[in-house]
Amino acid sequence: MVQQEADGLRAAVVAGETSLGIELGSTRIKACLVGPDGSPIAEGSHEWENEYADGVWTYSLDAVHAGLAESYAGLVADVEQRYGVRPTTYGAIGVSAMMHGYLAFDAADGLLVPFRTWRNTSTGPAAAELSELFGYNIPLRWSVAHWYQAVLDDEAHVPEVASLTTLAGYVHRRLTGRSVLGVGDASGMFPVDPATRGYDRRLLDAFDERAATRRAVPKLEELLPEVLVAGQDAGRLTPDGAALLDPTGTLLPGVLLCPPEGDAGTGMVATHSVAPRTGNVSAGTSIFAMVVLEQPLASVHHELDLVTTPAGDLVAMVHCNNGASELGAWAGVLGELATALGSEAGRDDVFAALFRAALDGDADGGGLLAYNYLAGEPITGLDEGRPLVVRTPGSRFTLANFARTQIYGVFGTLALGMRVLAGENVGLDAMFAHGGLFRTEGVAQRFLAAAIDAPVTVGRTAGEGGAWGIALLGSFSRARESQPGLDLATFLGEQVFATAELDTVAPDAEDVAGFAAYLERYDAGLAVERAAVTAL
């Protein structure tokens, strides 16, 4: 049976009946290949890190190009090892990446200033002015905030700007020659009208009128990518695009591409969270929760973004700039200690040991506090961050409590934002979690359930993340060619998740009470974090 399955997948690879997804995450560019049933069958990856240069969190476009080629080469090598063939084509390709930020190009498609990622918090005046103008929360990291801040600051490059896009939009344009975005990613550039699945016309007009009082700039709609919804044809792989992915020349042009999406949208797809009253938590360098709404929120909250699913349905998003990076840094230090003691423990072994230890910690973390703020955190009003571990002389300072509070720290700001969402009485039937944080079974999942006081479901593919999600969106575009009326929720429910292996953990009462006590200290201790930013 195993050989028959391998033979079937080999035939699917040769026939181009697979879909390729590539996601440019904060620390890794990952390529994921899925078979005809949507299951992952091969992968490749490339590690990278953002740079902090001249006060800006950025990645160079050279690093983007090199990382794409390396992650694709890794995937091809994996396919060859598993199935003995080298792919020359696919049924569909999809590109996803970190949402938001600022990529500004001139008329010759030249980058005008270094890519400003979602992590930058330098857009306070613009975000505040636009939020008041629109009556709609405009987060610091949104592309329109970056653009308007550049206008307010009279930056030298502003007169030359001919187009704006996101990282996923840029890569897609390099692959197809088309400047388009999936509606979910577009909703992190500028507010989207759920009724039209396009940019909000009333707010576009309001922006143009306000910007004109500052200086002469093109109408914003002329700068933004075209908006597409999931399933639409977003172009075909060009010869130049094929060469960018595969410099060996083996990959053939002509492959269908689905609309490029942000990591929030692909996270929803990868967790089957695209229908109202469903939600998901994605944990990586940043951490965010998405809840698909039945109706608009009653009030504007700075803690909550309004974005959309890849199909264009309204979503409330709690986005925290700081996720698991500080936890990873501590795991690295403990790994160095293990090496110094003569252990051959690898990174995964260290993480597993740290997570297992956390299970033995006190429910409230023993009086310890951990702040994972490597960067600023808009939800708590911080423009910069300073990672901290704080305790009192009476705290129970053990490995177990240290480990537990480091994981609690990943969820701290998220829990503050989820409180606001709960205050809007938003209905939530299911919360799914994905990302590498959830690979160690029964730990982060259990603590997240305590943090949000709701059941949390993790699937077998929890660690696959957005690369799998965008590959599924590619498969959906391909399926829509023969089934034009097929909707995304039905496709996922009937063709991908019908037989999915899921594990659901209900919140434990002791954990819930313990995390609540921790969060109370965490909220009060933000004064210490603010003092650290001022003093250090």
From TrEMBL:
The keyword RNA-binding does not apply. The keyword Repressor does not apply. Residues 280-476 form the Carbohydrate kinase FGGY C-terminal domain. GO terms for biological process: D-xylose metabolic process. Keywords: Carbohydrate metabolism, Kinase, Transferase, Xylose metabolism. Coiled coil: none annotated. It holds the Pfam family FGGY_N. SUPFAM superfamilies: Actin-like ATPase domain (SSF53067). Residues 20-244 form the Carbohydrate kinase FGGY N-terminal domain. Transmembrane segments: none annotated. GO terms for molecular function: kinase activity. It comes from the Bacteria. Belongs to the FGGY kinase family. This is ATPase. It comes from Cellulosimicrobium arenosum.
